[in-house]
Amino acid sequence: MSLPYLKSLKKPELAELADQTDLPHYDDYNKNDLVVVLDRHLRENRSIFSGLKSLSEYYSRLASPPRRGSPVKRETARTPARTPARRSAKKEVKEEEKEETSEGVEEPMPSPVVVSPTPAAARTSTRQSARQTPRQTPRQPVLATVVDPEPSLPASPAAITEAIDAQTLKLRESLEDVWTASGLVDRAHSLRAMLSSVKAVEIIVLLLESGSLAKELIPIRYLTTTPPVQAAQIPAIPIRVPDIFVFLEGAFWAPFSLWFLTCLFLPLVSAYFINLSWKASSSARRTRSTPSLAQFDPLTFNIVKALLVHIVFGNDFNFFGFYSGYAIGKVIDSVPGGDLGLLTGSAIGGVGALYEAILHRS
């Protein structure tokens, strides 16, 4: 009677017993499966866990003999013995049948006579058929019922929900492990740290301006066409390459050197010598933290760049005839937004420098 005792317990109590007896993977079972597995585990390890106080009730029920029916019911359930009266009734029925058969063979009767069995014979034949009916049934289902005392029940909605939650948790943990092992998070943090500075903003603005100018000044020439491949369904592809011979012409160097002088070289020289952040720091701190490379003031750089853009490209200043109107117009046409785009880049860098200075002060 140990199995009904386990069924009467709640699932947390069953889990506690399973944990005390080191039942593996007991969290994966629902209550019905856990009852069967725990009962088998406790029966197999009875010598080990019989001393536990929490399992004393279980093993006491396991040791008690199973209940049986009362003596009166067992006596009633027994098959009644055959009495001499029943045997005589059977003999009478058999003799009457034999007489009818012999009479039917020797002399044909004018009209058939139907012999009805006596009440005793009828009762005897009914009891015989009742006793023979259970003997004809196969014993395989009875054995199966005895072997499997706990029939398998369909999973409850709560068990299905728990299984789905467990699988979802395992999937999420595996995805997190894959994402962490890929190293993308560390690379993203490194990229964010590298771009979160005024220097990075200035480099992006200068790359945009120089790339637009190079795209306009370096033409793309047609070189050849690859033959088509019919087997792989690849059509003919024309190949175009940049014309590097433009580097030998003044049509490239005049606009590029004008942009380099106005937007990069002169602002950097001014930011090196007019360094307000360097002057504002104390002498002791400057001695400790001054690196070997020269430092540039980003605010001075953007202010000088905006002034030069306004003077050169806004008022067509050609550095006393050194540059032609072609070079000035080519730079304005190549950079997105022209002189207004150059001023916008200077304004973005200046605002970033002021914001960074405020953050350092706070």
What does this protein structure show overall?
- The protein is mainly α.
- Among the domains are: 2-67, no CATH class; 189-217 and 249-361, no CATH class.
- Helix content is 67%, strand content 4%.
- It has a two-stranded antiparallel sheet.
- Helix 1 packs antiparallel against helix 5 and helix 13 (250-273) packs across helix 17.
- The longest helix is centred in the middle third of the chain and has 26 residues, at 157-182.
- The model is unreliable at 69-86, 100-149 and 287-294 (pLDDT under 50).
- One of its GO terms (cellular component) is membrane.
Key structural traits:
membrane, transmembrane, 362 residues, transmembrane helix, Rho termination factor N-terminal domain-containing protein, Put_GTT3, mainly alpha, elongated
| Secondary-structure element order, N to C | HHHHHHHHHHHHEEHHHHHH
* Low-confidence region ranges: 69-86, 100-149, 287-294
Residue share in β-strands: under 5%
Largest sheet: 2 strands, antiparallel
Order of strands side by side in the largest beta sheet?
A: 1-2
